[in-house]
């Protein structure tokens, strides 16, 4: 029984550690410099704290949480407050389950709370409870990562409220554990504590469900924002096409009058007047930079618009496009517009002689490869690994790249962001 009890304790420490790191690793992407072996080392470190460090339960829990937060900040991308929320929520859940397990084991075994709480206790009820509850941790981690398959999308105010709630909740459950183990309560009080533990556990489940609902609502808001950008870009393109069409119609209407007038002037030998009038027309009415880079009208409209902006801002741009005119390109037009807008904004901060953007679009075997690169005088990823906007209104201005990532995810594609030879490059590969 001693060996079985020891194995159960090892399983408990390992399962709790793996469950937390599993959830964190699914919610927050691993930093590029962090290898998988480092994650294994992280698991071993927190396992040792959970299994070998002999401290009072409260201090051991706080130490484990602190190390977990520190390692998650070193290993994973994302904001510290987001990771803190996840770690506190996981620990609250595990402590509540542990409290319930202790109460139930107390009633089943008849032994005292202190006795069944001692690590290494050979009580069969304790061993079974440990195995079942820690298996529940792993199952819960799997379920949560299925629901929260992407980074949690909560607003700043929501984070603050939820973090405060969970900190208070954590203090309450830790004090509850300390108080119940230091005082020998009667059976009626133990039943009361069991009911309170169950109520706190149910409240925790309800809060988690609310967080999931809020997360889903915020996800829909981002999708709606992306849809709004698509509609806005499409409306803008249609208006530009309509304007171009009217100009062509007007030009065709005036063409006959021009030809008749020029014929008369030629007969009169007034060549200078004709030349001056032609120069005027070329300078004002026909000075359009509407080149054809692809037969796909939507992509071509976006490229032409951005080419004109680059010309005004003295940005050199090179374009190479090989895209099917029949592909459904409205969403890709929005994505391309966002990426080029970001590149243009970045180049405005560079010296004029260094301003440069390259665009490459190709379609191969029903996959589109979209590459946008822009010159950088210093590393962007090193100074801003999460690519957060530096503008004051982050909620509005930060939506561009977030919308692109959301689009790529919905298309089951991949996005690669890297730097090479003083170029900041975004490479998107997705289904057409």
UniProtKB/TrEMBL annotation:
UniProt keywords, alphabetically: Coiled coil, Membrane, Transmembrane, Transmembrane helix
Q: Is Transmembrane included in the keywords of this UniProt record?
A: yes
Q: Name one Pfam family in it.
A: HATPase_c_5
Q: Which InterPro entries match?
A: HATPase_C_sf, NatK-like_C
Q: Which SUPFAM superfamilies match?
A: ATPase domain of HSP90 chaperone/DNA topoisomerase II/histidine kinase
> Where would I find the Sensor histidine kinase NatK-like C-terminal domain in this sequence?
332-428
Name of the protein this chain belongs to: Sensor histidine kinase NatK-like C-terminal domain-containing protein
Question: Which parts form a coiled-coil structure per UniProt?
Answer: 224-251
Record field: transmembrane = 6-25, 37-55, 85-104, 124-147, 159-180, 192-212
């Amino acid at each position: 029984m001693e060996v079985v009890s020891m194995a159960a304790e090892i399983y408990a420490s390992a399962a709790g550690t793996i469950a937390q790191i599993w959830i964190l690793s699914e919610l927050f992407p691993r930093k590029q410099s962090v290898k998988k072996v480092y994650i294994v080392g992280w698991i071993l470190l927190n396992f040792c704290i959970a299994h070998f460090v002999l401290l009072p339960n409260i201090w051991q829990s706080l130490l484990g949480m602190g190390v977990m937060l520190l390692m998650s900040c070193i290993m994973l991308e994302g904001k510290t407050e987001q990771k803190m929320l996840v770690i506190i929520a996981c620990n609250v859940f595990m402590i509540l389950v542990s409290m319930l397990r202790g109460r139930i084991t107390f009633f089943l075994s008849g032994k005292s709370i202190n006795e069944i709480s001692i690590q290494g206790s050979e009580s069969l009820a304790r061993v079974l409870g440990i195995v079942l509850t820690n298996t529940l941790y792993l199952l819960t981690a799997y379920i949560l990562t299925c629901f929260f398959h992407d980074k949690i999308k909560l607003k700043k105010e929501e984070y603050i409220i939820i973090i405060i709630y969970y900190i208070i909740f954590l203090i309450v459950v830790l004090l509850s554990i300390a108080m119940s183990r230091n005082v020998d309560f009667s059976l009626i009080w133990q039943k009361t504590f069991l009911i309170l533990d169950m109520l706190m556990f149910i409240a925790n489940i309800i809060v988690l469900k609310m967080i999931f609902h809020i997360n889903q609502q915020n996800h829909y808001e981002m999708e709606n924002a992306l849809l709004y950008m698509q509609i806005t870009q499409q409306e803008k393109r249609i208006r530009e096409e309509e304007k171009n069409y009217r100009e062509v119609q007007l030009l065709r209407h005036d063409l006959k009058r021009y030809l008749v007038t020029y014929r008369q002037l030629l007969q009169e030998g007034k060549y200078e007047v004709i030349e001056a009038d032609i120069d005027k027309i070329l300078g004002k009415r026909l000075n359009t930079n509407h080149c054809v880079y692809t037969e796909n009208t939507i992509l071509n409209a976006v490229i032409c618009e951005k080419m004109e902006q680059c010309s005004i801002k003295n940005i050199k741009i090179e374009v190479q496009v090989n895209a099917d005119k029949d592909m459904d390109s409205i969403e890709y037009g929005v994505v391309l517009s966002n990426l080029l807008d970001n590149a243009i904004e970045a180049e405005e901060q560079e010296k004029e002689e260094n301003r440069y953007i390259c665009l490459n679009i190709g379609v191969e075997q029903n996959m589109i490869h979209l590459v946008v690169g822009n010159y950088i005088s210093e590393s962007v990823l090193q100074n801003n690994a999460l690519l957060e906007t530096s503008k004051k209104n982050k909620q509005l201005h930060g939506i561009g790249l977030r919308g692109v990532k959301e689009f790529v995810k919905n298309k089951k594609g991949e996005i690669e962001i890297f730097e090479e030879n003083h170029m900041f490059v975004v490479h998107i590969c997705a289904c057409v």
